[in-house]
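Narrative progress, year one. The postdoctoral researcher (J.K.) led the effort to move from monomer predictions toward full complexes, under supervision of the PI. The following entry was the first complex the group processed end to end, covering 429 residues in total.
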Amino acid sequence: MNIKILGSGCANCVNLEKAARAAAAELGLDADFEKVTDYADIAGYGIMRTPGLVVDETVVLSGRVPTVSQVKELLSAQLGS
Amino acid sequence: MTQAVLQRPAVRRWGGLTLAAVVVVGLYALNEFFWTWLYAGVFGWDITTGWPSMLHFFSYDTIKITLLLVAIIFAITVLRSFASIERTRALLGGRREGVGNVLAAGLGVVTPFCSCSAVPAFIGFVAAGVPLGVTMSFLIASPLVNEVAIALLLGLFGIGPTLLYVSAGLMIAIVAGMIIGRLHLEGWVEGFVFETKLRGQVIDSTAELTWDDRLQMGREEVASILRKIWPYLLAGIGLGAVIHGWAPEDFFARFAGAGNPVAVPIAVLLGVPLYSNAAGILPLVESLHDKGLPMGTLLAFMMATVALSLPEMILLRRVLKPKLIGVFIAVTAVGIIAVGYLFNAIIG
């Protein structure tokens, strides 16, 4: 599973990455994390509010920092599809 | 007990909210009384002059402003959770100038937005075909009319100046965006913006939110804004307290009062490079207003400080060429100066 954290390095992006790493660890997922900081790339995903969370090239969340359990739900949903 | 609560989540949710509202209103009502009782009654100080007066003002103002911020940021965040930037863009796509600018300025106020998202939002709007001038109306209105300033103006000056501030902010954003649109400055936008291909499906960040989510977002936003602004707030109130206690009555009025025709542009020129936020500026504005400075000059100063900041310009430099940033600053500053004169003429 490929997980991308989209954002230019503000506090929200750091918090999102923490939550996503914790969620992946709790689910026992073999995920590689990538940070996307380039604005053109971020906007290319259709995201207009950072931070954004992209799982296997699908945008699953933008504009807010979720809790670990919310990220777990999003990741599980993405696994199922 | 736990089971009963779980069966009635709505009662718990709205009951908790009502309780919180009662506590905030109660503290607000008792605030001045408490500090007067403590300093004048218990300690026996004369709180009308000197440092006891400053301490009284500082204690009272800190609590009052914090309570106002908590209540109003919470309410505005919950209301804003019904708007989203994705829907805003869809509404603005293909709009002509004029109607588009008016809509963009209005949506700039209600759409949840932080300046750290200014660049992706700008690219997202322009790449989706929203005209440059309309996009600029959105980008100007968003920081210019902000919830912290609304909260503080409402609490410190009442509904009249607050409405003037909101309508002035909208007016500046509409006109500035229209001017930038008319000048056809698309060539001064970095080329990659127009080449950005929007791929992937757009998700609506506010879809399927429950009331519990919205209230949670309100609580988080209150905590995150207070964490961010408290040093500015304390510095502003501290400086306000010093002015309140020490500055001679006519000191500021003599230099920047209604009699000085260039007070407004000077206030704006001072405000542009000053990097603070509404929380730091408004306590200062309150004290200066008490000392006889006209509201229009003070509002112009506050708007210049919050709307045009160096960090945001550095961010926007990624998508706008320096010439366009110059036009953006000049048009907005001129708008703020005009509004300052207008207010001084209307309310003095």
